[in-house]
């Protein structure tokens, strides 16, 4: 039995695989022949001219299912006894590019820790092609994204042959926590076939942000001072330190601790919420001003921290005027001092003037006590002393004015009723003429 090798492309129905002829040297029935092949293959024998046959495909062959067929052709005569011979044909199915590359997963999720080094290998994608030869060679590429804010070309790259991905630069979790894109896989057939898969990159947080204090502000300006009444009970809420952390998870869990205090044991800080409370009752021996240093620390590894300074002023009550701390800005302190001096000077001048008037009235009352009668008024003939009244146009009374004093006498007592100026007639006439 001889063997013949033949090749036929897949997906080609009714294709002639081989053409052969048979013969028998006998005559009559002994020379008549019957030709056949096995039944379980997609091939058939079709007679051509006398003693010639064609081996053809009955349907489209699929190389990916069966790449090779071994066909046995049996020729039997009709003599007695019957004689037969067999001939083998090996049919190899040649590949046609009828399969697109297929990814091993429909989607990929890759986890990358932030602050990675550039050119870091962050993962791979893989696709296979059931074809053979060039039809099975796969190349990878990044497909264009529809997100205008995602500059994909600056974030990741892919090796066209191996499918190894994504980081071109250091990634920042606080700026970009996750992003996704599609990767294409194409074979080198003609025409080329392709497919794509979704890739999602998730950044893992690194503890690279220290806590940031929102209150009280630590911006170098005049410190914020908290007022604390001396009557406060133990556990009194003085203030609360408010801080945030740009990280996530345990890297953003904050705890608070009192590092230093002007008077240890007087204040305490709650570890989980930053509340500053009194630890005991206050006494007269406690200082009026206190400075607290609070530590804010995250739970990262290693932990990062920040400090905040608090100023507390003890007062007898919230109605007590607030006095600025000595650390206040010099310009503000100077302005406040000048205002106080002006108020004191104005009050002194006003007091001196009122005292002088009241003293003069008292003296005149004493002189006229005997002459006063009930319901009558006396007009004193004298004038105020010049050294008290003549102030040369400073807004006080002139010595050309007189005062009318009304006294009411009853039961031996004198009472000051009213005081009003009397303008001399000459002054009134001069005024009218002017």
UniProtKB/TrEMBL annotation:
Annotated localization: Membrane
InterPro entries: Cadherin-like_dom, Cadherin-like_sf, Cadherin_C, Cadherin_CS, Protocadherin/Cadherin-CA
Keyword Calcium assigned: yes
Protein name per its UniProtKB record: Protocadherin beta-4-like
Transmembrane segments: 340-363
Organism: Galeopterus variegatus
SUPFAM superfamilies according to UniProt: Cadherin-like (SSF49313)
One Pfam family it belongs to: Cadherin
Domain of life: Eukaryota
Keywords carried by this UniProt record: Calcium, Glycoprotein, Membrane, Repeat, Transmembrane, Transmembrane helix
Entry membrane topology: Single-pass membrane protein
Main localization category: membrane
Domain Cadherin: start-end pairs: 7-103, 104-213, 228-323
